[in-house]
């Protein structure tokens, strides 16, 4: 009884002090609204059901209202959008999560306002607000915040490489998964029994999934595997790195050039020898084009034509050829 009296006296003293300071009578605000939610973040595997625990204490009256809302990651609380709300004895689901959202107790008038969200998606990750309003209990905000993370195993990562993959150069091996929550960590390993490159020439970033290889040598050639891991599982990809030696390429090019030169010389020598053999096989002519025979017959003169001397003129006279002289007999009568 003494405790109750002391409490009542303290309450009355507070009201009198409030009135003295403000100049008017202060009303007793009644029982305050108190909302309780877990202090630790909540995580649920993708596809499972999440229960967001929320409880409250107040004197539930006709003006009691409960609202659950959602804030995407990186957004302010003012950007929240409602999931469901309860007022005037009725429950109203709303928004894109309406078909998957419900209350653990309906109606939520017994002090429990826990939200159930079935078949959670990666897009359900964010902050959830449990807010209770019960006028005239206004002097507390009646608000609780719960952070939910939907756990997603890493998707198959994509492996790629860049840089100068020749002896003495540097290369970067990259690995990245498009999905995974929490964010995966990446680890590169080399497959096979080949000698492992020295640690000083390998720099690995587990967060970005990048492996830097410097001062490359032929021993770096081989198959590398990247493993992406989080608490939900792991996935991997592989790629093959081939380190080339430019000096060997130059030697091979010079050797090919020499072989081609020898081949061309051999073909030219063969053609020359063949030409000489063909020339020796041709028949030799007795007389050249400029030689003149004394007994040769001029063109167009028959071999039967003979040359006789003309004693009267001292010249050689050739009788007319029968083939070139034609005797024409006149058809007119001779006159004696």
From TrEMBL:
Q: What ranges does the record list as Low complexity composition bias?
A: 321-336
- What's the domain of life for this entry? Eukaryota
Which UniProt keywords are listed? Disulfide bond, Glycoprotein, Immunoglobulin domain, Membrane, Repeat, Signal, Transmembrane, Transmembrane helix
Q: Which residues cross the membrane?
A: 251-273
**Subcellular location, principal:** membrane
Q: Which PROSITE patterns match?
A: IG_LIKE (PS50835), PROKAR_LIPOPROTEIN (PS51257)
Ig-like domain residues? 29-134, 153-242
What this protein is called in its record is V-set and immunoglobulin domain-containing protein 2
Source organism per UniProt: Panthera tigris altaica
Which lineage is the organism of this entry classified under, starting from the top rank? Eukaryota, Metazoa, Chordata, Craniata, Vertebrata
- What gene does the UniProt entry assign to this protein? VSIG2
